[in-house]
Amino acid sequence: EKEDPEEQIQLELEELDHLLQLKETGEAVDEQRLYELELLVRHRNGEELSKEEKDDLEFFMERKKRYEAYAKEYNDLLSKKESGDAVDADRLYNLELVVRNHLGESLTDDEFDDLEAFEDEEDKKADE
């Protein structure tokens, strides 16, 4: 079930607008996400991006693809577990941390350390 690209663009514009409104009222916002959304909108509007901004945008897009793959794998493993199939419990745990972190849920220090170790290991695998 792939998202409609137009719907995705609309959701990102709404999120950008919401973050900007929060920032204007002095609320704390995820500055990295704000920057990411601003780059996406500027890119889609055909604005010229600097080399650094292009690199950042590429990084954000890669991270988004990786997250989508992790979320799908997490949901698949969860379904298998719920239907009684054996699953890799460590992998399921680490993917759950990825999803929870992405959704903005707070992680304990230990969970955050586990998440970082998992991401480092995944980065090493991707570089091979």
Average pLDDT number: 90
Question: Per DSSP, what share of the residues sits in E-state strands of 2 or more residues?
Answer: under 5%
Q: Compute the number of strand runs.
A: 0
List the total number of helices: 5
- Derived from helix and strand composition plus strand pairing, the structural class reads mainly alpha
The main pleated sheet reads as: none
Distance between the termini: 30 Å
What is the CA-based Rg, rounded? 17 Å
Low-pLDDT parts are: none
Q: Bin the helical content.
A: over 70%
Order of helical and strand elements:
HHHHH
What's the overall geometry? globular
Which helices and strands, and how do they pair?
Elements: H1 5-24, H2 31-44, H3 51-82, H4 89-102, H5 109-127
Helix pairs in contact: 1-2, 3-4
Written account of the structure:
It is a single chain. The protein has 128 residues and is an all-alpha fold. The protein is 77% helix and 0% strand. The protein contains 5 helices and no strands. The radius of gyration is 17 Å and the shape is globular. The model has no long low-confidence stretch (mean pLDDT 90).
What's a concise summary of this model?
By secondary structure, the chain is mostly helical. It is about 75% helix and about 0% strand. The radius of gyration is 17 Å and the shape is globular.
Considering the chains and any ligands shown, give keywords for the structure.
128 residues; mainly alpha
